[in-house]
Amino acid sequence: MNLKSEKYSLLTSNTHFFESLPVALVPEKEKELLKKAAALLPPIIRLALECRLTDNSQVDLQICIRRDDDHLKEVSNWLKFQLPESETNNKLLHFMDTWADSSSIYHKDIAEIFLELDVLPTGVQSPLLFFDLSPALSDSQKKELCVRLLQEMLGEKEAIFSILDTILHACPQPAFLAYAGIMFSRDTEVLRLNIKKLPLDKVLPFLQQIGYSCYDQELTELLPIVFGFSDRVTLCIDVKDEILPKISFECFLDNNPEGESYWKLFIEKFNTDNLLDAAKIDAALTWTKDIFPSQQKDWPEHLWIASLYKSENEFTFLRKFISHIKVTYCPGKRTELKAYLAYESTWANRTLLAKNPVLSPPTEALPVSLIAAAIKKGVDFIINNQQQAGWWKDFRLSPGTSDEWVTAYVGCHLARHELPETYPALKSAWNMLKTRYRTNEGWGYNALTPADADSTIWTWMFTTTGHFQQEFPTPGQDLLHAYLTTNGGVTTYSESGPLGRNQPPETFNGWKIPHCCVTAAFALAGIQPAIDYLLNHQYPAGYWYSYWWEGPVYATALAVEALCNKDALYYKTYIDNAVNWALNNINETLTEPSPNPFNIALLLKILLFSNQPEKYAILANGMVNQLLQSQTDYGNWMPAAEMRFPNTDDIHHESGENVQVVTDQKMNFTTITVLDALRLYLLSGLPEYRPT
Q1: Which domains are assigned to the chain?
Q2: Which residues, other chains included, contact 231 with Cβ-Cβ below 8 Å and sequence gap of 6+?
Q3: Phi and psi (nearest 5°) for 329?
Q4: Which long-range contacts (C-beta less than 8 Å, at least 24 apart) are formed by 477-485?
Q5: Rounded distance, CA 472 to CA 11, Å?
Q6: Any idea what DSSP says for residue 8?
Q7: Is 83 helix (H, G, I), strand (E, B) or coil?
Q8: I need a labelling partner for 215 at 20 to 30 A (CA). Which of 76, 322, 486, 527 fits?
Q9: Where does the source fall among the domains of life (predicted)?
Q10: How many CB atoms lie within 10 A of CB 506?
Q11: Best CA proximity match to 315, nearest among 354, 355, 351
Q12: What is the C-alpha to C-alpha distance for residues 420 and 439, in angstroms, rounded to an integer?
């Protein structure tokens, strides 16, 4: 990008954007102020508007500048033309010059910065400077960088340096200090520090350890909401001579509001007194949009020029999306909410992804150590993929992404490994599930849905496997019986429950019939009527059909596991029939262009629950090799659990026509299922088995 012309600014390159801002978010008076601020910034389309969700009409502006994507020397020179002469601006420009110098420590250690302008009627002051602190830097390197920069900008600040050192050492794993900010136009005596990946159960101990003394019951009650309805949370604290009372939480959700209903729910949690501006909320929740050159006049000139240097497969477009919601807490004051509405240019590639090669897995058993290493790698992924609150999430449907049901399923299977390092993750998961219990009903898909049988039974099994059973609500296992029908089958939603009561009978037929995939989970918990139902509903071919899953393998694997756990010898005929069905399907599954690891893992489990698993040792070894070859470097398996979402009146679930199917986009469900199969494989003794 050529920034030699100081007239080509963020404003002139994006006139259409600033002129078309929704009045609900940016009234005309504030729009004029915002345009003046944009004229002071270079044409880097990586910006965000900071909108208060109350009747306060102030809208601030920030841009992100990246070392590896932007021409830092040109940016620095451009700012020299635009920023008025002042002591603080001169300090900022000195930093920009130093950062642009490839030999400087700033250039080496700082990958990106944010410049934020407070847009006030009195005029725009010096930008606030936020700089990133790479996770690759050690605590001592982060401190050295901050101290050097602060000394150059603000002089000696021994009190701040001491608190900074305390914060760096107090961050519990996996939390880390990610950004520091110098508040030029607000208070040059204050340093803003942003801590990422701080687990919910570590927030209050961390604040106490660093000397924050202003927390109260309100903050204690605030934290489960902030963390429980967010995918990621960044804690923001201000340091002066001490930790200042006001702290903030930047709350991120991975999906836009169109695909994630928690955005609206999150905001509503803080609007119990109806003081937030409804029009602003609606405008923020509909902000997300992808904009292509054919859809907008006055396309930014520098993007046209940049496209000439790209390959024919690359194209540019503009993205509008909600970056995050900031929740600000200060003792004795009302909690504040701001929406950060992002706007950025990006590049995409038209090149089609190549298909995965067809693998021919060897049939010889792998060493136990190699399988154990794969399990450890997968367990590490599951632990690291847990959200700060304690949730595991997957499957995007119209009610949003599941957290309760997925957390219960993942927690149950993770607890089966009986590894000490998993206990903190399991405890965090159970702590969050406890907050969502619906009295005398159980748990649901997520906070926006009623309790259901599947989520409730997996929560029950999670507490028994994870040794939290004493904390399960008073009804205990009796809670599950509300979902049992007279013939022992289990309906996902009780006809007498909230969903059943509020749906006309004819539109609820599909969801009130017994579902084998849910009944099998009840059978896995040892509930005899559910086991009896399965015995009467096995198909002649040997499988049980799934209402909520593509194909029969999920329900069949659960049913076989339940029968084996209850009495393998007594139910041998049913188990053998299922094993024979699996044998007839394994080869087809393994030879697909992209073999499905979720289905392979479930088919493997069926073989392992047979009365003589050693008969299938060669086949099982090949399946395990296939699974190990498809594990990623991060330890996970790619999304492969195909969940169906039939209409409420769909009783012809085997046809699979016009049914929405989604996969586990966060890869938790597939990964934990594969890990369970590998765990069972090790326990079976097949890795050491050698046919005679």
Answers
A1: 15-344 (no CATH), 370-684 (1.50.10.20)
A2: 252, 253, 254, 387, 393
A3: -115, 135
A4: 477/525, 477/527, 479/440, 479/441, 479/442, 480/442, 480/453, 480/456, 480/522, 480/525, 480/527, 482/441, 483/452, 483/453, 483/456, 483/518, 483/522, 484/522, 484/527, 484/529, 484/530, 485/514
A5: 58
A6: S
A7: coil
A8: 322
A9: Bacteria
A10: 8
A11: 351
A12: 32
* pLDDT for position 659: 85
Side-chain-side CA neighbours of 123 within 13 Å: the count stands at: 4
Identify the sign of the CA torsion 227, 233, 237, 243: positive
d(CA 355, CA 360): 15
Q: How far, in Å, CA of 169 to CA of 176, rounded?
A: 10
Instruction: Give the separation between CA 295 and CA 317, rounded to whole angstroms.
Output: 10
Q: At 517, is the secondary structure helix, strand, or coil?
A: helix
490 in Cβ contact with 482 (< 8 Å): no
Q: In whole angstroms, what is the distance from residue 454 CA to residue 442 CA?
A: 10
**How distant, in Å, are the alpha carbons of 58, 77, 91, 315, 661 from that of 71?**
31, 10, 20, 21, 45
Backbone φ, ψ for residue 294 (5° rounding): -70, -10
First to last CA, the chain: 70
Tokens of 55: 């009747």
H, E, C per residue of 18-62? HHCCCCCCCCHHHHHHHHHHHCCCCCCCEEEEEEECCCCCCEEEE
Question: Counting runs of H as helices and runs of E as strands, what totals does the chain give?
Answer: 26, 15
The answer to whether residues 323 and 46 touch, using CB atoms and an 8 Å cutoff, is no
Closest to 674 (Cα-Cα) out of 378, 406, 360, 357: 378
The SS3 of residue 651 is coil
What is the residue type of 518? V
pTM of the model: 0.90
What is the distance between the alpha carbons of residues 330 and 243, in angstroms, rounded to a whole number? 12
How much is the pLDDT for 320?
95
105 CB-near residues (< 8 Å, 6+ apart): 145, 148
Q: Where are the alpha helices (DSSP H) in 229-367?
A: 262-269, 278-285, 301-307
Identity of the residue numbered 644: R
Whole-number Å distance between alpha carbons of 59 and 178: 25
Q: Do 66 and 45 touch, CB atoms closer than 8 A?
A: no
Record the tokens describing residue 88, joined without a space: 């603080």
Q: Output phi, psi for 131, to 5 deg.
A: -125, 145
pLDDT at 505: 61
Instruction: Output the pLDDT for position 91.
Output: 92
Residue type, 417: H
Which residues of the chain fall short of a pLDDT of 70?
1-6, 350-365, 496-507, 653-657, 688-692
- Residues near 478 by beta carbon (within 8 Å), at least 6 away in sequence: none
**Exposed, middle or buried: residue 32 (CB in 10 Å: 0-12, 13-18, 19+)?**
exposed
> Nearest Cα to 519, choosing from 541, 536, 507, 501?
536
The beta strands (E) that lie in 125-225 are given as 128-132, 176-182, 191-196
